[in-house]
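Researcher: We plan to redesign the surface later, but first we want a full-length starting point. C-alpha cells attached.
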C-alpha cells in the first residue's frame, strides 16, 4: 500500500474514533461541575452490557484475553497490576493458573451481590492470586508500615482520617490507574448502598467519596497520568461492554467533579480527547528504589527471590559493612512496625543469589559471599564463589526470626548474633536469633 495512502487512512480512523468519543460525551457538554456533572456522567455510563463472570470465550477471562494482554514472541502475556510475575494465556477464554478475577473495588463493599458492578470490566482485572488474597478487601491508602509486599502490591497500615487501618497501596506505576478506576466506580454506581465505608459514604450520590479519599485519588491521578495502555484498555472494554471510563478519555473531568473546577461548566470543545505522551522505546517506568529505601520483615522464605536486597538484623543491630577477619561487625538500626525505614550507609546491603542446592540462597555482601566455616570454630567470612558453605537455607519462626543454616557439614553453621562481642558469626547453638528484612521495590 502506498505509504501516504496508509497514513491518510490511519488519520481518518483516528479522527473517526475521536469524533465518535465526542458524540458519546455530548450529553455532558455544557454541564456545570460538581454534583450536576457527576450525575450527568452517572447517567451516561450506568447502562452497559453485562459480561458473564468466569472462564469462557464470552466471559470475563475471554475479555481479559483482549483487554489485559500484550503480544510477546507469538504468545499473549497477561498484564498484571498486582505483581511482577510473568504468565501467559493458554488460549482465549481460559483462566490463568495462579491468577484470580479481582474486583479493584472489593465486591464486599456493596455486600457482594451480583449486580452490574460485580461484572463490570472497568474494575475487573486478572490478578496474582497471592497478592489478591493479601489485598483482601482493604481500602486504598498510603502505608505508614508494610506487612507484605511483592514489589508491585503493598499491604500494611495506613493513617486513614486519623485512624490506623489495614490498607492496600499499588506501586507508583499503577496509582493513577487505580485512582481512575475508583472515580469511575463511585460515579457509575453512586446510587449503591455501601456496606463498607472506609473511602466513601454509605449513601451519597455526591461527593460519594470522603474528603481524604478525594485528596489522595486526585493526587495519584495527577502524579501518574493516563497511559497508552489505559487508553487501549478503555477502548477494548467499550467494544465489549458498551460504556467508557470518562476519567481516562477526559482526565480534566476529575477536577470538574471533585477538584478546583467544580464551579465551572465543562465544555468538550475546550478539551481534546486525551492522548498519552510518547514513551521512549526500551524505557521502564518501574524502577528500584534507592539503597536507603524501606525494608520490610520477611515472614515467609518462599517470598524471597533472587535479585532481592536484604539486611540481616538482630536486637536493634544489623550486619555492618565493617569486615573483620573471622566475623562481621554490627551497626545500629531502627525497627518499627516490622519495618526498617532508612538504614544508615553503615548497614551491609546483601544481594540475594541462587545457592548451589534447590531452595537455598547465597548472600552477596559487598563483592563476596557470606560463608560458614568448614571447621569447628565460630566464624563468618566472605568468599568469592558459591558452594555449600555459602548456600543458606532459611526457615522463619513464629516470632519472625529466621533460622539461616549453611549447607556445609560443620555443626557451626547457623548465622546468629553474639550480643556480648557485638558480632555476627556462625554457631552450633545459642546466641541471638536474626531476622531478614527485604528492601521494598516501588516505582517512580
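Model: Full-length starting sequence:
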Amino acid at each position: 500500500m502506498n505509504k501516504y495512502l496508509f497514513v491518510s487512512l490511519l488519520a481518518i480512523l483516528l479522527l473517526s474514533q475521536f469524533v465518535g468519543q465526542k458524540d458519546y460525551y455530548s450529553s455532558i457538554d455544557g454541564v456545570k461541575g460538581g454534583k450536576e456533572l457527576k450525575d450527568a456522567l452517572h447517567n451516561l455510563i450506568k447502562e452497559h452490557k453485562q459480561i458473564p463472570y468466569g472462564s469462557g470465550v464470552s466471559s470475563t477471562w475471554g475479555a481479559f484475553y483482549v483487554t489485559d494482554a500484550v503480544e510477546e514472541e507469538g504468545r499473549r502475556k497477561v498484564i498484571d497490576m498486582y505483581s511482577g510475575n510473568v504468565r501467559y494465556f493458554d488460549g482465549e477464554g481460559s483462566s490463568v493458573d495462579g491468577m484470580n478475577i479481582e474486583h479493584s473495588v472489593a465486591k464486599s463493599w456493596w455486600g457482594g451481590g451480583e449486580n452490574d458492578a460485580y461484572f463490570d470490566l472497568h474494575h475487573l482485572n486478572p490478578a496474582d492470586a497471592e497478592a489478591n488474597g493479601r489485598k483482601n478487601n482493604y481500602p486504598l491508602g498510603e502505608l505508614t508500615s508494610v506487612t507484605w509486599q511483592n514489589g508491585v502490591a503493598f499491604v500494611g497500615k495506613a493513617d486513614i482520617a486519623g485512624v490506623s487501618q489495614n490498607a492496600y497501596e499499588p506501586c507508583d506505576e499503577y496509582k493513577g490507574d487505580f485512582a481512575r478506576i475508583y472515580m469511575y466506580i463511585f460515579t457509575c454506581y453512586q446510587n449503591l448502598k455501601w456496606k463498607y465505608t472506609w473511602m466513601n459514604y454509605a449513601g451519597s450520590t455526591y461527593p460519594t467519596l470522603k474528603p481524604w479519599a478525594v485528596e489522595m485519588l486526585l493526587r495519584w491521578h495527577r502524579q501518574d497520568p493516563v497511559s497508552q495502555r489505559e487508553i487501549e484498555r478503555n477502548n477494548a472494554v467499550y467494544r465489549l461492554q458498551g460504556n467508557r471510563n470518562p476519567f481516562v478519555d477526559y482526565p480534566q473531568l476529575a477536577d470538574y467533579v471533585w477538584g478546583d473546577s467544580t464551579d465551572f461548566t465543562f465544555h468538550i470543545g475546550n478539551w481534546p480527547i486525551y492522548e498519552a505522551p510518547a514513551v521512549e522505546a526500551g524505557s521502564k517506568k518501574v524502577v528500584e528504589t534507592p539503597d536507603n529505601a524501606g525494608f520490610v520483615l520477611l515472614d515467609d522464605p518462599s517470598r524471597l527471590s533472587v535479585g532481592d536486597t536484604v539486611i540481616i538484623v538482630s536486637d536493634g543491630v544489623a550486619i555492618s559493612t565493617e569486615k573483620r577477619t573471622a566475623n562481621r561487625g554490627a551497626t545500629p538500626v531502627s525497627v518499627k512496625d516490622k519495618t526498617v525505614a532508612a538504614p544508615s550507609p553503615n548497614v551491609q546491603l546483601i544481594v540475594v543469589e541462587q545457592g548451589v542446592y534447590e531452595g537455598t540462597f547465597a548472600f552477596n555482601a559487598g563483592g563476596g559471599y557470606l560463608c560458614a566455616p568448614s571447621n569447628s570454630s565460630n566464624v563468618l567470612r566472605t568468599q568469592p564463589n558459591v558452594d555449600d558453605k555459602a548456600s543458606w537455607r532459611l526457615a522463619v519462626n513464629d516470632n519472625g526470626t529466621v533460622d539461616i543454616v549453611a549447607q556445609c557439614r560443620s555443626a557451626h553453621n547457623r548465622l546468629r548474633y553474639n550480643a556480648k562481642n557485638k558480632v555476627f558469626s556462625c554457631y552450633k547453638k545459642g546466641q541471638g536469633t536474626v531476622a531478614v528484612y527485604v528492601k521494598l521495590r516501588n516505582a517512580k
